[in-house]
Design goal:
Length: 698
């Protein structure tokens, strides 16, 4: 998950995409003020590179206080790790330039590998550890005795920036992650109601697809915001369980709504009132201002709907297609129970999401007695991580070789920027676009830095004049950082404006080094972009197929594993995989839409597999039915693991429908019909997305 997406937690309304809101102005003024305080403190302590203190404030600046603390904490860890690595590497290899740059390139590769396997802000800290070692070690080339001094200076400058950013974000009109979680969850519930309302009434497919993507994004954002809220207030840890549980239930409700939309027929007497109740409910919820200020009446209504869906309906005697006599295959009976089951699932899931919202509002009075949940399971793409590591190490090494061969002093800046960009943006869904945004912001910053640093400040020195010149430039930049559409370019502008400006207490007119250093930075970014394009270029469709294969393997394990997994563990893994799949799918255009839809359907399949596994443990279920379930699950696992796209489906879907019809023919007991419904739901999902539930071609 990128920091750009998390910026949306500032709760900027849609109109805020063009007009800054009050929250945007608070964020901008707070950030600029913290930066000036950090710079003033660095001046007072006569640090060698005071700009790093101010730059750090803009690097870690986030709209939510917990996000600042998290990014600042991992920036500090990454800086310390990079400083220690720089001291060790330079002490051992500093007298041999060729060996030094080789080891540094390998270190950057290792850190990029680790960063690609982690998530923000941990990933940011790992990447930072790599290029921090380069930033410290290169100036110490040939004089390893100064590396400790350089490492201490950089750490001190960054600590000042982190402290200033963290204190101001927490004390000056703070926006807290705990409040943001509640606001985001309320918005997600309303989005879910809007999605369901459109799904139940045949809404616009494009709008439904956009809402589906937004809900998936919000689910992952809620998970990550738990960490930030706990950093703000350790007491929030006792409420982390409701957040953890609610995330899975949000995805469960989305999956059920999708299934109801895909299978709207038949309109029989048992289904019509249930669909009408659900449609009226979500329509009222989405249209009522302040609906979630009190969830109790909504929860009560959902409880009644879910209970009604679980009741045994009055099923008419099935008739043959020609109306001449009984239809012994039980299809209509099973179809009715199937749709009622999905409707009940949607009502139950939405009810639990609302209860999760209410739990977050309750004051924390004692330690939660609920059993702690396992850590969120994440998808780790090892192939992509190794590719990113090789690219970063190779690019850094080749540019460093050029620097050593040509002895061009300004090329050291190029080496550093190649290391920074090729490592920092390596794990982004579209690293070229991210790096190009960084280049754009850097290029725009250049003339502003020249006018202020080379023209204005040498003529009018002093901190007062500095403040007068930079505040009108940095405040609009910070407003752009608060806008999710412009955060990348705006952040690059602010950081590189300060890097080009290099503010010291005494500024002098010296355009030669300024232009040479600026050129080396821009060239470094362009080289890194070229590396992303040429060296082991990433194919998003390959990543899509790899994640889809992982989801099919998850389902196969649900079918075959001796121990029945916990439902919450499967939901956690499923929504994490979907979250990783979504940005890759968006790069593949319409070709990827069935894969995203199939991933949502996979949640439905997994939950139904768990229902069948639980039914096998029910002593009231006949032994032959238990055996039939086992045979079906083994066949389903084979289908998921071995069938390839374009190949005809095996008998799994036909067997599921046959078993369902046979069960309905033999028994009218509700628990038996629910087994038949689970089989039908699995068959329908696999028929809807046949290529998703097939093994990718090698």
């Amino acid at each position: 998950m990128t920091w750009t997406r998390l910026k949306e937690l500032a709760e900027t309304p849609l109109s805020g995409l063009t007009q800054p809101t009050r929250s945007d102005w608070i964020f901008a003024l707070r950030t600029v003020s913290a930066g000036l305080i950090a710079l003033l403190a660095a001046y007072a302590l006569k640090l060698d590179h005071p700009q790093w203190a101010m730059m750090t404030v803009f690097i870690v600046a986030q709209p939510v206080a917990g996000m600042v603390l998290a990014k600042g904490f991992y920036r500090l860890l990454g800086t310390l790790a990079g400083g220690l690595a720089a001291v060790g590497i330079t002490s051992l290899f500093g007298t041999n330039p060729w060996l030094l740059v080789t080891v540094l390139a390998l270190w950057i590769g290792v850190c990029t590998l680790v960063s690609s396997l982690l998530r923000n802000p941990e990933a940011y800290g790992a990447a930072l550890a790599g290029y921090t070692a380069m930033i410290i070690s290169l100036p110490a080339l040939g004089q390893p005795h100064v590396v400790v001094e350089l490492a201490i200076a950089r750490c001190a400058e960054i600590v000042f920036g982190i402290v200033c950013a963290g204190v101001t974000s927490r004390l000056i009109l703070p926006r807290l992650a705990a409040d943001a979680i509640i606001s985001r969850l309320k918005r997600s519930i309303l989005d879910l109601a809007e999605y369901a309302s459109g799904a139940f009434s045949g809404g616009d497919p494009a709008s439904l697809a956009a809402l589906q993507r937004k809900l998936i994004t919000d689910a992952q954002t809620l998970a990550e915001m738990r960490t930030y809220a706990r950093l703000e207030a350790p007491s929030f840890a006792t409420r982390a369980h409701p957040v953890r549980r609610t995330i899975g239930q949000l995805l469960w409700a989305l999956s059920a709504a999708r299934a109801l939309h895909s299978h709207r027929r038949p309109k029989n007497a048992a289904l019509i009132p249930m669909r009408r109740d659900l449609k009226n409910f979500v329509g009222e919820l989405a249209a009522t201002p302040g609906a979630l200020d009190d969830t109790a009446p909504w929860v009560a209504r959902l409880d009644a709907i879910a209970a009604k869906a679980r009741e045994m309906p009055d099923l008419p005697k099935d008739r043959a297609p020609d109306g001449s006599g009984p239809n012994n295959n039980g299809e209509d009976k099973v179809g009715t129970i199937t749709r009622l089951t999905i409707a009940g699932d949607f009502a139950e899931a939405l009810k639990q999401v609302m209860r999760g919202l209410e739990a977050l509002r309750l004051p924390v009075s004692r330690k939660s007695s609920e059993r702690s949940q396992p850590a969120l399971v994440v998808h780790r793409d090892y192939q992509a991580a190794w590719r990113n590591a090789v690219r970063a190490a190779l690019a850094t090494f080749l540019v460093a070789i050029f620097w050593l061969t040509t002895k061009w002093s300004e090329a050291a800046g190029t080496v550093i920027l190649v290391a920074v960009v090729s490592s920092l943006f390596a794990s982004r869904p579209d690293p070229v676009q991210s790096a190009w945004g960084f280049f754009t912001g850097t290029l725009i910053a250049l003339p502003f830095a020249f006018l202020v640093g080379q023209v204005a400040l040498p003529a009018l020195p002093g901190f007062g004049w500095f403040t007068l010149f930079v505040v009108p430039i940095l405040v609009p930049a910070a407003l752009g950082m608060a806008n999710p559409r412009h955060v990348g370019v705006a952040t690059a502008f602010a950081i590189n404006f300060l890097a080009f400006l290099s503010p010291h207490q005494r500024m002098i007119y010296d355009p030669g080094p300024f232009l040479a250093g600026s050129a080396s930075i821009l060239v470094g970014i362009l080289i890194a972009i070229g590396v992303f394009l040429v060296v082991l270029p990433a194919d998003p469709w390959v990543t899509v197929e790899r994640i889809s294969q992982a989801m099919r393997e998850d389902l196969a394990r649900l079918c075959l594993h001796e121990r029945i997994p916990r439902r919450s563990a499967f939901e956690s893994l499923a929504y994490d995989r979907i979250n990783q799949l979504m940005p890759q799918v968006q790069q593949t255009g319409r070709r990827g839409d069935p894969m995203l839809g199939g991933s949502i359907a996979a949640v439905t399949v997994g939950l139904e597999v768990l229902r069948l596994r639980q039914a096998q443990l029910n002593s009231a279920i006949p032994h032959e039915t238990v055996e039939s379930i086992g045979n079906f699950l083994r066949g389903l696992a084979r289908e998921l693991l071995f069938r390839r796209p374009g190949e005809p489906q095996t008998a799994t879907v036909a067997v599921a429908r046959q078993y369902a019809a046979s069960i309905a023919q033999r028994s009218d007991r509700l628990e038996m019909l629910q087994i038949a419904a689970s089989l039908r739901i699995i068959a329908a999902a696999m028929e809807d997305y046949p290529d998703f539930f097939a093994k990718a071609r090698a």
